[in-house]
Amino acid sequence: MHSKKIKVQIMKPGLLEDDCLVVGELLIKQLKIPTNQPLQLSFGSFRHNVKVIPLSRLDGIRISQGLAKSMALPARSTLRIFYRPQSSTIQLGPIVGVLISQDYPDVTERPFGPITQFCRELANACQQQGVFVYFFTPSHIGSSSSKVTGWLYADGWKKTELPAANVFYNRLTSRKLENKPSVQHFMKEVKSLYGSHYFNEKFLDKTEVFDALGKAPSVAGYMPESHLFRNYAMLKSMCSRHPIVFLKPIKGSLGKGIIRISRLDGGGYQTLTAQVGGTQKHNYASLSKLFTTLSGKMKSTRYQIQQGLHLILMDRRPVDFRALVQKNRFGKWSVTSVVARIANDQHFVSNLARGGSLCTLKNAISRSTLPPAAKKRLNVRLKKAALDIALGIDQQIPAHFGELGIDLAVDQHGRIWLLEVNSKPSKNDNTPLGGSKIRPSVKQVIEYSRFLSGF
């Protein structure tokens, strides 16, 4: 179905009835809209019966001020339109609702804190493509699923009541907020009542990812040995097979709380723990003494135990790779970007939050410690690995994802390994911008939303 991008003119009060829609004659012809029968106007969850009035030399549509107010349309809106003959419906939209964790209504310049720049960028990109976007938090969800209070960008940020969207994009950064009964109920209702789509609908934890992908033969070659950490026997067994193992909080992010365990000459063991101010080091005479210390942490945190890898180095520091994979306008996974992340000299993890830095893929490969033969086609192999893993997630985990951050490592023999999959890749204001004001990753979110909504 082909939608058309149009301008919506809002008439002055008294010039047009609320049940009339003035449509340009060329548009009527292109979309095959009947003019001799009552039709339904649809905009997200909003429905209204209208009659169409053709007008020559009009490029777009005209609506009354009352109708625009009911739809929450600001002046000079650009939308997309198509006609569904089966239901005699003129469909305007698409509406994309972005669910975020928190807003700051009193901070007019940055109402969404560290993701304000991303929200503005998405709003600008949507306007260019004729997509209507708003932002809302769990506290904006009311008793009715047909409406939600949210923020629009129209000559500044404005808060208003809006129809339920065609597509919801989950950018919540808290599992607690995501699991709130009001959020879960709202999403279930809008999917059921209005056919809304909801993507990136849940957080992934490390155990879920590795257990699920362990069932996918296509990604077996990327998988390090990895288990939910349960007891001393498991620690002993892993340390007997691997000189280095990692313990990672299964619900952790940003490299926080990761513990690296290595054998020392003479039989002892050493732990390095990633903390905010740097790395904390402890030596233990035996593995059992190390486990006794870990037992205290295990009471409050569940860990995934994972085989350690000898990563390639750049400037004598470990480097890994973050691939952003997103679904495109055909609903298929594609790689939007791959960047290299270099660990800070005070840390063994490469996360930006732990002082890591970014580098282009090409630069990292050329300056890495890899043998020249292993450098060839590594960029192609990394992208293939990211796509294979994204497909594996879709096949093995029953949830809807449209965007994933996939962390990959390359060992000193050139083999690619999976480190982690993140269903909420960072959109903070410190995420580097590309050469243009609107990043390809933002455009891809819009393309996929249009695919889902049929616009």
TrEMBL record:
SUPFAM superfamilies the UniProt entry points to: Glutathione synthetase ATP-binding domain-like
Which branch of life, at top level?
Bacteria
UniProt keyword terms in alphabetical order: ATP-binding, Nucleotide-binding
- Entry annotated with the keyword ATP-binding: yes
Q: Its Gene Ontology molecular function terms?
A: ATP binding; metal ion binding
Could you tell me which residue ranges the ATP-grasp domain spans?
381-447
* InterPro entries according to UniProt: ATP-grasp, YheC/D
Key word ATP-binding present: yes
Any idea what this protein is called?
YheC/YheD family protein
Q: Which organism is it from?
A: Paenibacillus woosongensis
